[in-house]
Prior knowledge:
- This protein is an alpha/beta fold.
- The chain has eleven helices and ten strands.
- It has helices at 16-24, 38-46, 60-67, 88-91, 97-102, 117-132, 136-143, 162-168, 182-185, 216-222, 225-233, and strands at residues 4-9, 31-36, 53-56, 73-80, 82-87, 108-111, 145-148, 174-178, 191-195, 204-210.
- The strands form two sheets. Strands 2-1-3-10-4 form a five-stranded mixed β-sheet, sandwiched between helices. A five-stranded mixed β-sheet has the order 7-6-8-5-9, sandwiched between helices.
- Helix 1 packs antiparallel against helix 11 and helix 6 packs antiparallel against helix 7 (136-143).
- This is Molybdenum ABC transporter substrate-binding protein.
- One of its GO terms (molecular function) is molybdate ion binding.
- One of its GO terms (biological process) is molybdate ion transport.
Amino acid sequence: METIRVLAAGSLRLVWPDILTAFAQLSAQPVTTAFGPAGLLRQRIELAESCDLFVSANVTHPQTLLDTGKALSVMIFSHNQLCLTMSQRLAQQQRTWIDLLSDPALQVATSTPISDPSGDYTWALFNHIEKNHPEAGKALKQRARALVGGADSLVVPEGELAAEWIIRQQLADIFIGYQSYALRLCNCDNIAVMEIPASYQIRANYAFAVCHPRAQLLASFLVSERAQSILEREGFIPLNR
């Protein structure tokens, strides 16, 4: 039986083993997975790296593969959104999220736009902030440091959550990243997560591209009720919400 070769967005790394365990109850087909920033993974596929299923944190990269004939189909299978991670000391100052982001004395870190969809979603958040707080979003684009998710980014130690590690290493005061990590981050000592109000939220659409027919069963499983419940348990937003 041929192995399914998956290239998947790094933000799925923690939930993916549970998804594959559940899939194994449906099929004996073996699966191997490599993780990374979705934009960089798409480039690897374009350079002819073997991939049967590409699982991205946005729709743009899978759609690009479909448009160029490197994928057979594309489908959204889940959603995510953004949040702020910071030290508990900073969170306890009882300042609003926008006040914290707008404070020029605080260093804001993000993922890398273009290479990593998380960075793209964060820049969309900055655009939204700019519409409601003139000059604030523009200033954030100038101040923010893209520390992870790029070809030459910092290497986060294995087993570490990027947001927690960045705050603990004092590389930034605030990290803007996916809310799917919030449950785990809230269990980290001296780390706090602050939600972004719904009126400012940016919805992250996760999509897969089937690049070879052998991956179709796994792709279909991702939109099944079983997989959706696993994703929701890990902080992702299911398709029906």
